[in-house]
Amino acid sequence: MKQSLIYFTSSLLLSGLLLLAEGQRALAGDIKLEGEVTFMSDRIFRGLSRTGGNVAGSGILDLVHTNGFYAGVFVANFSDSFGHDVETDFYIGYTTSSGAYDFNFALSYDSFHGGGDSTGYFEFRGSVARDFGLAYLTAGFAVTPDKREFGGGRSIYTYMGAEIPLPFPSLPPMSIDLNVGYEDFAGGFNKWDWSAGLFVDYKGLEWGIRYKETNLKGVPGSGAKALVTIRKYF
Questions:
Q1: According to CATH, what is the number of the domain 2-233?
Q2: Which is the most buried residue in 111, 130, 169, 172, by most CB within 10 A?
Q3: Cβ(65)–Cβ(71) under 8 Å?
Q4: Can you tell me the distance from the alpha carbon of 14 to that of 149, in angstroms, rounded to the nearest whole number?
């Protein structure tokens, strides 16, 4: 029953992507295809490694409508004690602006595959952001009703972030990225995570280095670490 629900949900979201792609013929110019490919020295999700400290790769493909609706899929390698080695995330969402504020809401299904097993969970995410000139600030949340893989049970994640462009006109575009988050699990497993990074756009790629840490002790993948990323947008 569980796997049937997983496959049904994935098929439903994928069908939505295909319908949007088909609709692009009738709505020429209203829908565009966006994406990115990323290579990183370790893939970190909310302060914890999802690849056991190993090199990782990921890809994103989105269909975005001019009215603010979008749908997409995220795929990456993964590693856990259950033998899962692939992660997929199908999502649909909506973005809009009101005055100086930007809003983003999405529903996703994050699933893990490998070792003869598949499992996953639904998540609802939202954020509000504003450009203050010196920095672009974002505050957001993510709610998982059940079965988050770290700690289990219901999860509520809240975070704040700041993207600060550096004023060096003679150099390639670069910015500092700061983030802090807190996750509350129904089972009592709670954590803080924070990070700081420097990102540079050069030769059509985004090159980044980031330092991350959590308040957890003895949890695999939770310690302080410096990360390197290379990302291509298209």
A1: 2.40.160.40
A2: 111
A3: no
A4: 23
Which residues are CB-neighbours of 4 under 8 A, at least 6 positions away?
none
Sign of CA dihedral 131, 125, 189, 60: negative
Domain residue ranges of the chain, discontinuous segments joined by +: 2-233
Per-residue confidence in pLDDT tens, the chain, 234 aa: 444 444 444 554 455 555 555 555 545 578 999 999 999 999 999 999 999 999 999 999 999 999 999 999 999 999 887 788 999 999 999 999 999 999 999 999 999 998 777 888 999 999 999 999 999 999 999 999 877 765 567 899 999 999 999 999 999 999 999 999 999 988 777 899 999 999 999 999 999 999 999 999 888 889 999 999 999 999
CB 129 within 8 A of CB 105: no
- Tell me which H or E stretch contains 20: helix 2-26
Q: What is the DSSP code (8-state) at residue 187?
A: T
Q: Is the dihedral angle over the CA atoms 20, 24, 27, 30 positive or is it negative? A: positive
On whether the CB atoms of residues 20 and 63 are closer than 8 A, the answer is yes
- Reduced to 3 states (helix: H, G, I; strand: E, B; else coil), residue 105 is strand
Separation CA 163–CA 122 (nearest Å)? 28
> SS3 of 223, please?
coil
58 phi/psi in degrees, rounded to 5: -150, 160
pTM of the model: 0.85
